[in-house]
Amino acid sequence: MIATSGICVVQYNQTGNANYTAAPQLTSNTTATKITPVITWSNPADITYGTALSTTHLNATSGGVAGTFIYTPAPGAILNAGNTQTLSVTFTPTDTANYSTPAAKTVTINVIPAPILGVCGTSNNQSFTIVPTINLCLSGTATTITGTGPWSWTCDGANGGSTASCFATKSAPTKPGDCDANGTVTIAEVQSAINMFLGLKAVESCVDIDSSNSVSIAEVQKVINSFLGL
């Protein structure tokens, strides 16, 4: 008989002996079909964005049948964040005479967003005449700034990322009343200082030189002197 798939012919012979005559030869045919390998593959564990697909995730088996696995996406691929993303594999047996090619197998994998770490920006640990509003965080989300100088805020992480605490100190302006820190005092800034003195405008550190949370007539005079270049 043959040892591969196809038509198997079996011949039965009995040659006889001293007591029995030879029996007629009998022949029978049977069909041997190819075996279809069973692919076994379970849904891989969740991964974090940035993790490349590897044999940890692409680990289908064929029940010991030799052959070639082709995965889609291929090993080394980095998937975007998202749940229930499809992975598939096809298997081609080496011995195609006795094994047929099974249907493709699919599983799903969840890709978790990578943590975003809170990192203070370049305004951290610096001195300003007015509250900083830019360069608060290199990454993460800046919270509301608290304080009147020194000031503090945090850069909040996301997806399990850490939070950073940041601060800035207050320094006296080079020129009293130069609230926009451009090196000059304008008539509008003089008027602003007067309004602070009159209680018509919130006090700013660029005019409140002595940090008393109020503006005196002497401080207004300093702003006027800055405007006049005195």
How would you characterize this protein structure?
The structure is a single chain. The chain is mostly beta strands. Helices cover 10% and strands 30% of the residues. Strand 11 and strand 12 form a beta hairpin. Helix 1 runs antiparallel to helix 2. The radius of gyration is 41 Å and the shape is rod-shaped.
Summed up:
With 230 residues, the protein is mostly beta strands.
Show unreliable segments. none
Shape: rod-shaped
Main beta-sheet strand count, sense and barrel state: 4 strands, mixed
Total number of β-strand segments?
12
Sequence of strands across the biggest β-sheet: 3-6-5-4
Give the radius of gyration: 41 Å
Secondary-structure element series: EEEEEEEEEEEEHH
Report the β-strand fraction as a percent range: 25-35%
Terminus-to-terminus distance? 117 Å
Mean pLDDT: 89
The chain-level structural class is mainly beta
- Number of H/I helices: 2
Question: What helical percentage do the residues reach?
Answer: 10-25%
